[in-house]
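Inverse folding, one chain.
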């Protein structure tokens, strides 16, 4: 069981690192985020600490979601197949892409649009109350952590409009949490089915 947990954690960590590199590339290309020259140290123009942090967060979130489902006694059964998970990832990348590439009249319009898209992602691929509550809670904590990093000069946002950061940032975090939660749940389900099949064979 411990080995399976480590494998799931490592898989989620790898997915988190990969997505952070790809998504941060979109943000840096449009100058949404600016890192000081001395901390840029990868081919994707990302600070070295960003991918490991995102990978760790992805692993914790992906392991937490099925754990919460188990504690509540409500296994998540809505759209539990890999094709749905991959569509969820695609929509999340699309939301992040929109935040960096699409030009809106003002930040309020952009934030409201991304909020609607993020809630739509939750409704389409999750629909659980626990998933929504965890998404909102973690998004708020992640936004607070980002504000502290910006305040201390680790990096900065161009045109900040909400306490040192962009007002749409919580929407991106929320969509990311829902996405990693879906991946974590699917990995846990795959592991459960694998163990059950092994027990039947024995």
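Residues assigned per position:
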């Amino acid at each position: 069981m411990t080995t399976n947990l480590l494998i799931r954690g490592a898989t989620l960590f790898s997915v988190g690192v990969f997505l952070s590199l790809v998504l941060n590339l979109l943000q840096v290309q449009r100058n949404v985020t600016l890192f000081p020259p001395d901390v840029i140290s990868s081919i994707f123009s990302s600070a070295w600490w960003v991918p490991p942090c995102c990978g760790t967060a992805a692993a914790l979130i992906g392991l937490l979601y099925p754990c919460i489902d188990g504690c509540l006694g409500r296994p998540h059964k809505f759209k539990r197949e890999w094709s749905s998970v991959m569509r969820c990832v695609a929509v999340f990348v699309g939301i992040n892409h929109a935040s960096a590439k699409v030009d809106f009249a003002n930040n309020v319009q952009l934030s409201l649009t991304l909020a609607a898209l993020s809630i739509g992602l939750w409704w389409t691929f999750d629909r659980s109350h626990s998933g929504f509550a965890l998404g909102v809670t973690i998004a708020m904590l992640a936004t607070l952590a980002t504000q502290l990093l910006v305040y201390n000069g680790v990096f900065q946002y161009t045109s900040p409009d909400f306490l040192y950061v962009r007002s749409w940032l919580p929407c991106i975090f929320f969509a990311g949490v829902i996405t990693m939660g879906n991946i974590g749940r699917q990995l846990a389900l795959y592991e459960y089915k694998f163990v059950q099949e092994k027990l039947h064979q024995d």
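The first helix runs from residue 2 to 29. Confidence is low (pLDDT under 50) at residues 38-46.
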